[in-house]
Amino acid sequence: MPADYHSHTPLCRHAEGTPGEYVEAAVAAGLLEYGISDHAPTPEPFDDWRMAAEELPQYLDWIAEAREHAAGRLPVRAGLECDWLPGCGPWIEELAGRSDWDYLIGSVHYLGGDWDFDNPKWLGRWAETDVEEAWSRYWETYAAMASSGLFDILGHPDLIKKFGFRPGGDLARFYDPAVEAIAASGGAIELNTAGWHKPCGEQYPSAGFLRRAAAAGIPLVISSDAHAPGELGRDFDKGVALALESGFRETVLFAGRGRRVTALTAPRP
Question: Which residues make Cβ contacts (< 8 Å) with residue 65, sequence separation at least 6?
């Protein structure tokens, strides 16, 4: 199985498991590499689903413990999932210098910095929202994040669909500008299998987006977004099959903010 670089720790307040349990799950799943990328802190806390800035040393200790437990059985990579928020660029640059990260994931969970649209707590707000406008704002934000060049991986590209709210018509009007920005940035995207277990019932991103990304030569990783050890590598067989069907032939591996490619192999029947 490919590497799984998108996973969380209990420091985000909505995940569970110990470093050892995650490593054992990664080995059992046959992952090529296991990456840890919990929700990065912000300068001032403003929500309840990420580590605090003062907990960053504890997070690095968690990664060190996972590496010790792995004991050469598979590489354990260090990352962060960083939210793209208004004016966040200098803070992301500061975080990037605080450790020897292997990669940084950029994600959009907020519209305008005041609504974490994928949070079940605010599901009712969708009933009062113009879906077309929300999608437009989301994809403009996503393209700006890609264009910043601050991230190695661009997370769950169409997370905006999590609860099944989509505007009508051909969604290429949202996809095409984002794909263009991502291709120009040189960043990789992830095929995030967690979407199969959300109300949208579909991987992030859609098959149409994946085909466009493959045609544009955008690199790919496959990720589980695991919040528990048993979720590592979940649905990777389906993910690999879909990636190949969409036109991808390689995935990328990260170390020290550098990357190399490895072939995607069709799952055995």
Answer: 19, 20
Query: Could you tell me if residue 196 is inside a domain?
Result: yes
Considering the chain, what is the average pLDDT of its residues?
96
Cα 2 from Cα 242, distance rounded (Å): 13
Residue with tokens 């949208």: 200
4 is a domain residue: no
Q: Could you tell me where the DSSP H helices lie in the chain?
A: 19-28, 56-70, 89-96, 131-148, 172-185, 207-215, 236-246
Record the tokens describing residue 46, joined without a space.
């403003």
269: pLDDT strictly greater than 80: no
Treating both helix axes as pointing N-terminal to C-terminal, what angle do 207-215 and 236-246 enclose, rounded to 10 degrees? 50
Record the pTM: 0.96
The phi, psi pair for 107, rounded to 5°, reads -140, 150
Helices and strands, number each (H, E), in the chain: 7, 10
Look at residue 85 and tell me if it is in a domain: yes
CA–CA distance, 9 with 141 (Å, rounded to integer): 26
Q: How far apart are CA 7 and CA 59, in angstroms?
A: 13
Residue 147 lies in a domain: yes
The number of domains in the chain is: 1
CATH code assigned at 131: 3.20.20.140
Give, in order, the Cα–Cα distances in Å from 11 to each of 70, 95, 121, 123. Answer: 20, 17, 20, 24
> In this predicted structure, what is the pLDDT of residue 72?
87
Predicted confidence band at 268 (pLDDT cuts at 50, 70, 90)? confident
- For residue 213, the enclosing domain spans 10-263
